[in-house]
Amino acid sequence: MGANYKNWIPKGMIVGLAAGTAVLAAGTAATLILGSKYDMNTTAKAVIAGIAGVGALGCLKATQWSISAYKAFSYNGKRKLSKQIIDGTAEYVTLPEGGLGLDVGCGSGALTIACAKKNPHGRMIGIDRWGREYKSFNKQLCEDNALEEGVDNVEFRQGDACKLDFPDEYFDAVTSNYVYHNITGKNKQELLKETLRTLKKGGTFAIHDIMSKGRYGDMQKFVNELYDEGYEKVRLIDTTDGKFMTKWESRKMMLAGSSLLVGVK
Hints:
Rossmann fold, 7-stranded mixed β-sheet, about 45% helix, elongated
């Protein structure tokens, strides 16, 4: 049967947007037809039809985007962008013999399992809050996927990226993929520091996200701060210029600013 890593674009979102497009388009048409039939005030008719029409156009564009992104991120499609990002991020994660790694925001377990497969001599822990917005992602799904992949050096737990339930310098590696940009109302650099707090000296981190300045602030300054704190090597890698995706794909799917922060403590 194989592992089921789901899709980062929920089908429910596509269905909802398509339904919204249809309803608003129908509302626009109804306003114009019935408004003329029942002698509706011309200004009122134009305003109502205009608002509904703009809404329909917005929903249509969002539907087209979500369908395009769904196809690109699908593990069963031709593009398999999700797999490319997961495998590419896991390449940076190396555990020592008996080492322990942490994956923050594990979702369906894809990155946790990829890191565990690459490091059979170590162990990975994946945590996630598995919120309602991604209700099809859960701990059981992660465990089922690990079983399908024949991976037993993994463990999945409920957890909060804002306050990790682990002591300082506990893990040999930490990783995350497309998580922090979804956490609203929190300073993204502070979230990174909370994650990196758990990294041992000599450990490696590989964290991929949409690190645009609007979301993350000045990341080059953050890199310099990590050097000041004693990190041996830190790289901020643009993943939208052929690393994981093309510039065109990043713009089309609104992923501009996607970067991989890699470092050794």
